[in-house]
Amino acid sequence: MALSSPSLVFTVQRCQPELVAPAKPTPREVKPLSDIDDQQGLRFQIPFILFYGNEPSMAGKDPAKVIREALAQTLVFYYPFAGRIREGPGRKLVVDCTGEGLMFIEADADATLDQLGDTLQPPFPCFEQLLYDVPGSEGVIDCPLMLFQVTRFKCGGFALAVRLNHTMSDGAGIALFMNTLAEMAQGATEPSVPPVWRRELLQARDPPHITCNHREYEQIPNNMEGIIPSYENKMVLRSFFFGASDIAALRRLVPHYLRKCTSFDLITACFWRCRTKALEIDADEDVRMMVIVNARARFNPPLPAGYYGNAFAYPAAVTTAGKLCENPFGYAVELINKLKGEVTEEYMHSVADLMVTNGRCLFTTVRSFIVSDLRHFGFKQIDFGWGRALYGGVAKGGAGPFPAVFYLMAHKNAKGEEGILLPIWLPAKAMDKFANELDHMLIGNQNQPTDPHPIFYASTLENIKWTPKKLIGTQ
């Protein structure tokens, strides 16, 4: 486990932002987004970043020029990204394919990548310098759909920061775009995986018919109060690294019948428990963990390989803070493990129907936590000619105004160990408690029995009893 605490201060000299339009004429048309795309919870811009080291074979080549030209070529195929979002009746979003282009910034930093620390991970020092928030560009409606900034460092390396309008694509979708961009940068003339729009595949049915239980959209009174805990608004961001030994320590805490659960299940359950304890949530209050599930392969037939729209759901596991924190660790792991199987083709159609029925509502934010696994989208493998990225993934954690989202990303720490990196936002007061709880699970429990509570845990989850009390401090 590792924490980042950057203190470096550097300055960036930026050129004026410019619009990069498709290199060739593209269709002038209006394309509706799907009813999964335009839900309230995706109406924000999400930043991510890739860092590249100096590559001697690319001497004399300017990464800003290479990427700018590749963007123009890529937009010929992904031309909706050169348009603008408009909102129509019923809050329905469409893309007006105007061909105006996406926004691009070229910049230089007076620092080297080595100065950023032993390992590149959020929070990044002076990130606002690496992705300039161009005034008037940050909205969802009538704004550029993507913003790119290439920042050259004195060592010959560079950073590529990207801000995406999430209504256009999810992680799998933007990975398709970025891989095409890399292919164009290396001389390709067309994408190896042609992009597919087909947003009608995820439109609501006529008439809409909600057939599944969607606890992720339960409308709790004063919903927005849960975005930032009321007792403290000062949020801090830290990254935590899980290596093989950390995963093994967590796996020792679950019963034998759960031993084949994934590292995702273990880490998600661990973070959910530690975060709930750190925030000192009343034992009788509901808490929920929403797991983002890529649904592309859940359709019959599967969605086309080049589909780059949002194609995921986030079903919610709901329990009380008391049950989550006081039961054996396997309780939380099993809740997460079972949750992923809920997403089916029918579930996705039911979500779309719920969106048009309930005004494209926001997911539940009160005492909620969302997790997304980005490890399999290959952001670090994106190669513009300078080799693999030193870091490739989200820039901050969180999702728009909602900070309680964490992402699993493939990462190599300063010791060269391959593992999983997770950035997390918490109130400053709670972050130390969270780190202590995590240390207790990873280190303090290493001598636990191989199969904790085997008889007790054989009971069903519903039969576990709990006496409400106030959770305070480190349990």
TrEMBL record:
Segments forming a coiled coil? none
The protein's name:
Benzyl alcohol O-benzoyltransferase
InterPro entries registered for this protein in UniProt:
CAT-like_dom_sf (IPR023213), Plant_acyltransferase (IPR050898)
Query: Its family?
Result: Belongs to the plant acyltransferase family.
Q: Which GO terms describe its molecular function?
A: acyltransferase activity, transferring groups other than amino-acyl groups
Q: Which PANTHER family match?
A: ACYL TRANSFERASE 4 (PTHR31147), OS05G0315700 PROTEIN (PTHR31147:SF66)
Keyword annotations for this protein, in alphabetical order, are: Transferase
